[in-house]
Write a structure and sequence with these properties.
The protein is of the alpha/beta class. It is built from five helices and seven strands, in the order ββαβαβαββαβα.
């Protein structure tokens, strides 16, 4: 199965676009599908962002990688391809990038990409070897969210990343205090709101109204 880029919401007057990157596994050649939990969790976030930015001309795109595994950074190539597609569709429009879990690791390899004007990660998987590879654009605003009870990826990774990005010139901050697990479901409305507020404030700094994100399914 090949990679695919799905437009979750196409604004009739696109002023900014958000690319959402899903999670995965350390190593796997299994094709990604919409039924995998990390894909579903990220797709839920994408839908929330589409709703939050609908009044402000924000389009939202969702990348599905070709395969499920990190596999020494294979999804990064997929993400760069997706950015090129978005640049061709909306030339000159600022791009926000959001990554969940492994998608956060992918996103953090894109901090120096042209037109990426804001970034957020949720439960990001970060290895020590990733830190020197992060070369952000000056003053890039990055928000790193992580549940304090995450037993899959460590909040320390988000804290170390925020420090590295600030040292390299980005405007990075981490929120790792709220009690939640890796799936970030307990406080989903809060996480979704924080991501939307961060992205819209920096992608569209003038007169942005963040709509209320949808509640978690029961």
């Amino acid at each position: 199965m090949s990679r695919s880029l799905r437009i979750v919401r196409r604004s009739p007057r696109t002023r900014a676009v958000v690319l959402v990157l899903h999670g995965g596994q350390a190593r796997s050649d299994e094709p990604t599908t919409w039924r995998q939990l990390s894909v579903w969790r990220s797709r839920w976030l994408a839908g929330s962002l589409a709703r939050a930015g609908r009044r402000d001309g924000v389009s939202v795109a969702f990348l599905r990688y070709a395969v499920r595994g990190w596999n020494d950074g294979a999804p990064v190539a997929d993400a760069r391809w997706a950015l090129d597609e978005l640049r061709q569709t909306w030339p000159g429009v600022p791009i926000g990038v959001v990554g969940y879990s492994m998608g956060g690791r992918v996103a953090l390899r894109l901090v120096g990409e042209p037109d990426v004007a804001a970034m957020a990660t949720v439960s990001a998987w970060v290895e020590a070897a990733d830190l020197p590879l992060m070369e952000p654009t000056a003053d890039l605003p990055v928000l790193l969210l992580h549940g304090a009870d995450d037993q899959v990826t460590t909040p320390c990774g988000s804290l170390l990343t925020a420090t590295r990005l600030r040292e390299a010139g980005a405007l990075a901050r981490a929120d790792v205090e709220q009690p939640d697990t890796h799936a970030m479901v307990r406080r989903a409305r809060t996480w979704h709101r924080l991501v939307a507020e961060h992205l819209l404030a920096h992608l569209l700094p003038d007169e942005v109204t963040v709509s209320r994100p949808p509640s978690a399914p029961r």
